Amino acid sequence: MPQMLAVLSATHVILVVAVVLLLFGAQKIPELMRSVGSGIKEFKQGMRDGEELVPRASEPPKETTTSARPG
Fold first, then answer.
1. How far apart are CA 45 and CA 56, in angstroms?
2. Cα separations in angstroms, 37 against 2, 9, 28
3. What is the widest separation between alpha-carbon atoms in the chain?
């Protein structure tokens, strides 16, 4: 399958762009790209938030202190 991606030429790219323009129209393309960009931004923010919640395997666990003292 990766070999198929290597044979994309300028003609293929132009054809894909033409089909996208025909399907969505020139007026909708900027709106579509804004939506894709905001989706990517939200995805990256979610990934960063997830990394903060999940400790890395290479890091030692943080020590937690308890307020209850043995009596």
1. 18
2. 26, 26, 14
3. 79
Distance CA 52, CA 49 (A): 5
Residue 30 inside a domain? The answer is yes
**Amino acid code (one letter) for 5:** L
- Within-domain flag for 10: no
Question: Residue 41: what residue type?
Answer: K
Q: Cα separation of 69 and 51, whole Å?
A: 32
1-35 tens-digit pLDDT? 456 656 778 898 899 889 988 888 888 888 888 99
- Whole-number pLDDT of residue 45: 93
What's the predicted TM-score (pTM) here?
0.48
Number of domains within the chain = 1
Domain range for 28: 21-45
